[in-house]
Amino acid sequence: MNIIDKNAQIAQIHEASRPGTLVKLDSSWWRFGGLHGGLTSSLLTGAVRDKSQGRVLQQISARFRRALRTPFILEAHEPCQGKTVSWLDAGAIQEGHVAISASAVFAEPQQRFAQTFTPRMPVVPPWSQCPVFSVPLEFAPFAHHTEIRAVGNVRPFSGGAEPELMAWLRLVADDLPPDEARLVMLMDALPPSYAAVRAAPLPLPTVMFSDTPGSQLAHAVSPWVLLRARTDVCRSDGWLLERLNAWTPDGAHIGSAEQLRVMLDQTHSSKVH
């Protein structure tokens, strides 16, 4: 059995995230009271990748049922195979229960269409000209695994006019460009974009997180990623829809994501990741 323990580095975590792996990470990997959601989704990406038979990840969607605070096992089911598409399911099993489940779509690599389009990268300063944004470690210990350089003047819980955050990000444990697993992790590395219009902290846990890698991801050469996150919908019952896009420093679009979040008061924050 593969074991991922608290001393593991990000590269080792990616290499070991296969079905049957026992994950024993301490609170230094947490965010909002449990294991970082992007890290968990990344682990599940690795677990299904092991059964993908060389096909290309098109999308992975994770459903967060409860926070992970104790050791858990990665589980991946046998794929449902089509002629060119595969569907795979995985889960993080904690004390005999599915805490987080995921579904992924893989497909045979094809180059059939010349007329394509992707979101255009905003005009922003390079990462080297942007200030470092330090997330309080007592609030999100996982932040020490990342370097965040904020773009513009908007900050979380600053009472701004727009529910949008933008920043350059990289993982600090290695200097490798993002692959599928690293991208999934980075897509969840910013505070919730809705926090930009809030004046004070409020739990905004993720209930569902879907990540769609871009076709240019395989050509990325820099560890830096520009991430733009915006809350497009905030309903009166507290449910929010957040959309994210990521680019390389040279402007190549490498992925999109969508998060379904819900606002909770402190008495309910332990029920959902």
UniProtKB/TrEMBL annotation:
Acyl-CoA thioesterase-like C-terminal domain location is 133-260
Residue intervals of the Acyl-CoA thioesterase-like N-terminal HotDog domain: 28-107
Q: What is this protein called?
A: Acyl-CoA thioesterase
Organism expressing this protein natively: Pandoraea communis
Q: Which InterPro entries match?
A: ACOT8-like_C, Acyl-CoA_hotdog, HotDog_dom_sf, TesB_ACOT8-like_N
Pfam families associated with the record: 4HBT_3, 4HBT_3C
